[in-house]
Structures are given as C-alpha cells and as structure tokens.
Amino acid sequence: MSLTFPTGFTAAAMAAGIKPSGRTDLSGVTSAADCTWAFAGTRSTTAAACVTRNRDLYAQGAPIRALLVNAGNANAATGTRGAHDNADMADAFGSVLNVRPEAVLTASTGIIGHLLPMDKVLSGIEHLPDELGSGADAFASAIMTTDTRPKTAEATLSSGARIVGTAKGSGMIHPDMATMFAFAFTDAQIDQAALREAFPAIVNRTFNAVTVDGDTSTNDMAVVLCNGQAGATDLQEFLTALEGVMRDLARQIAADGEGATKLLTVQVSGARSEAEALAAARTCCVSPLLKSAVHGNDPNWGRVIMAVGRSGAGVNIEKLRVTVQGHPVFQGKPLPYDDAQVSESMKAEEVVFTIDLGVGDARGEAWGCDLSAEYVSINADYTT
Q1: Is 122 exposed, middle or buried (0-12, 13-18, 19+ CB in 10 A)?
Q2: What is the pLDDT of residues 56-99, one digit of tens each?
Q3: Is the pLDDT of residue 376 over 80?
Q4: For this structure, is 148 an active site residue?
C-alpha cells in the first residue's frame, strides 16, 4: 500500500525529460495551508542556486506552501543564468498553484555544471498539477538519482498528527548541515520559532552523522514543513518523533551508499562531549581503510584506533575499549579473540563497532557503509 502524506499535503511526480533515462525527474508537494518550517542547507562555498535561494527565504521567515524538486540536473556552478533559472522554476510552479513564488521552495540534484533544460522544466511544471494525488512513495522515487531504492519513514503522534519523511542520497555523502535531500511533512501545528531552535541539533545527530564517501554536495538540504491541519501537538513529543523519522532516513541513506553491501554503525561512549563523540564516530565511518576492512569482513581494530586518534576527540588510551559485532577486541591493550569467529560475525547486513573513549559520559552515533569496487565503478562512469 502506498504511503500517504499527512492531511493537507498533496504530491505530484512525472517524467519531464530532464533525465536521459526517461524516469520520473520532476516532482512537487503542495500544502492546503501555509506551513511553518525549518531548513538546513550545505555550508559548501559552491552551494547551488536552490540552496542559496531557500536560505534567503528562510531568513525572511515567510510561510511556505510548496516544494518543487528537479532530480535530473544539479543546476550548480551555473552562474547568474542558473540563479535565474532556479527563480523561474519557483515562479512557474507558484503560478500554476496560484501562490506567491516566495512561498515555493526549490531543490535540484544531478550532474554539476550543466544548465537546466528550461524548455522541458517549464513544460513539465505546467503539467505537474495534472499529476497531483501521487503518494509519498512516488515522490520519494522521483527525487532519486543514483539511489537504488526510495527512502521513506513515518511516525504518528498521540494527537493523531503524522510525520512523513522522504530522502534521497547515495553518493557525495558527507554533510556539513543536512544530507543530500531530506524532506519531512507533518500536519501537526508547531510554532516556527520553537521548531527552528530545535532543528539544528536534530540535524546534527541524524543527517550530520551520515557519511558514505567524505564528499559534501553542493545541493544538500533538509526541510521540515508543518501545515497545522491536525491541530496542536505536544512540542517535545513532536521533536522526539521528528528526530526518530530523520534517524531512520539517515540510516537508510547510509545503507544505500553507492556500491554498499552493508551498513556500518559506530557507537561512541565515554566522550567529553556529544560533539567529540560524533566526531569520533563519523571519522571511523568515513575512513577508507576501515570501510575496506568492513567490506572484507576483516576485524582489523587498528583501523578504529587510527580513526579515533585523528578525529580530534579526547581519548584515554589506557581506558579505551573497542568491540566488533559485540566481540571485545581492545581494552587498554589488545585482547585475545577468535579471528575467524569475529570475521564470520561481520558477514551481516549491519556491522557495529562500539567504542568507549574513557574520558567522559557523552555519547554519539554515526552511520556509513563499506567501500567496494562497485563504488569506484559507479563514479568512474558517472558522466560518460
């Protein structure tokens, strides 16, 4: 059964001819009412036009009514022309929906440095309302690029309000704000100031804790839209549920990393601060050496010691503890263990390392994936 959006949200998805493959590549979500919202965009100094425009709208604080996504062209490194094309997309979608262009967010993903085929984009936008009624699954599929599967998650609150999240991302994943695309839609009534205050920490513990290859995209963004159609909801319950949805999406992104065969989870405890715990976990997840060892089912815990040591997190080597799939391998000194048994335990869909830094009581968790030859193949042939 198709996943439905919360009350008041409607989606549309179509193939506008932006992708050479002919797959769906243009999609949008509209709201029956103004939305309070929160946004996080890449800190890359070469950010795409969609990120810079959305960031400007965020600073203005105006309500949002719609989101338009092009998944065939990044429209990044395209200069003034690209900025105008991005604005024209918002103008066109606002016109067919009869809402102000300033109430329309835009998102683009695909190859960097190519101008948008605006004839196809504008023609598609003109006909996009004919497709309204698509479910969340169709929208999640339409925003994919190298993803192998759509990514969705949902939660229902005690008030009856729902949160539905969608995301895309498989490569160029090492965010410094959000990750790839992550969109959450809810009919809960949430105060904008409170939402914006809480959102950065939620993003940091979820999307900023994901890495596939160490490369931050020009187009990364995370957005949550709240149209209030289900009425008032307890704020703390909502924020907890929103973080749960985004954590689910973050793990799905890591598991679907380009060429990945397994999910890598690193759980860090005993840190001086949450920031240091996250830094240690994320550094482990991005290490090509550790990722390669995970791919080969090699319990080479020295890769963990190396990554933690360069992460910037405080460590007491005499109290440092490391386990691989629950098997203790280091506790201030190397521990005896059965290589074959631990290697066999790593032949799983998820490989978990736990690390206690021995210097505090803060925790953090990050997610990544193994590094396979398929990752190289995908990116060696990306544009050719």
Answers
A1: middle
A2: 999 999 999 999 999 989 999 999 999 999 999 999 999 999 99
A3: no
A4: no
Q: Which two tokens stand for residue 152?
A: 């969705």
Catalytic one among 179, 186, 218, 323?
Answer: 179
Whose tokens are 């929103």? That residue is 242
Any known ligand binding at 168? yes
Token look-up 């335990």 returns 345
Are the C-beta atoms of 225 and 67 separated by less than 8 Å? Answer: yes
Predicted model pTM:
0.91
The 8 Å CB, 24+ separation contacts for 295-300 are: 295/261, 295/262, 295/370, 295/371, 295/372, 297/343, 297/344, 297/346, 297/347, 298/343, 298/346, 299/324, 299/327, 299/329, 299/337, 299/339, 299/342, 299/343, 299/346
Give rounded-to-5 percent helix, strand, coil for the chain.
Answer: 35, 25, 40
- pLDDT for the residue 214: 74
Kindly state the greatest CA–CA separation across the chain: 69
379 is in an annotated binding site: yes
Query: Is 179 known as a binding-site position?
Result: yes
Structure tokens at 279: 């830094």
Beta bridge partners of residue 40, listed in sequence order: 222
* List of domains in the chain: 9-253 (3.60.70.12), 263-381 (3.10.20.340)
How many Å apart are CA 151 and CA 167, to the nearest integer?
A: 5
78 among annotated binding-site residues: no
